[in-house]
Amino acid sequence: MNAADPAVRTVLWDADGVLQHLPAGWEASMRPVVGHLVDDVQGFLDEAFAAERPALTGEARWVEVLPRLLERWGLADSYDEAMRVWLTMEPVLETRELVGALRDAGVRCCLATNQDEHRGRHMHATLGYGDLFDDTFYSYELGVAKPDPAYFRRILQRLDLPADRVLFVDDNAANVQSARGVGLRAEQWHVDDGLQTLHRQLRAHGLPV
């Protein structure tokens, strides 16, 4: 199949780093909350991301996991501030506009993101992903998270499309490789790479940008 074959009619979009971002980064944003109480902010974040993993697949609830994590680090009183940072995100307007333009051109666009239920519902309500996309695939709803190949297989079942008719855009190399392993077309892109790069990647798959 030619790389410029216009057979791609559905694009799956990651959220963090693609459609939304935390401009200062996790460590810089969390440091005012916990930096005066712990020496190793990055260590705290590493443990937090590991503890969050079961919540991404719906096996746990982050609002119950986070208090226990904070207590272990002696940060029990920092729950509200920590949750505020966890739920802080800024939309990438250029990418969102591109999604709208593709949909206007007849290309189906869907959200494909790893999120726990609390953050996912917050994103859905505050950033309007239900209106922005034709469909949304949150990991906590699917019961499996990227980069597990089963994540992409479940989406393909929902879409009822061959894998090579679907393009996936994500900023994480492991997720991109996993998608390709399932047969999807996939491109790695982060907001810092610039919109021109994203346009070039989409055009390579025959998309009208």
UniProtKB/TrEMBL annotation:
<dbReference type="InterPro" id="IPR006439">
    <property type="entry name" value="HAD-SF_hydro_IA"/>
</dbReference>
<dbReference type="Pfam" id="PF00702">
    <property type="entry name" value="Hydrolase"/>
</dbReference>
<protein>
    <submittedName>
        <fullName>HAD-IA family hydrolase</fullName>
    </submittedName>
</protein>
<dbReference type="InterPro" id="IPR023214">
    <property type="entry name" value="HAD_sf"/>
</dbReference>
<dbReference type="GO" id="GO:0016787">
    <property type="term" value="F:hydrolase activity"/>
</dbReference>
<keyword id="KW-0378">Hydrolase</keyword>
<dbReference type="InterPro" id="IPR036412">
    <property type="entry name" value="HAD-like_sf"/>
</dbReference>
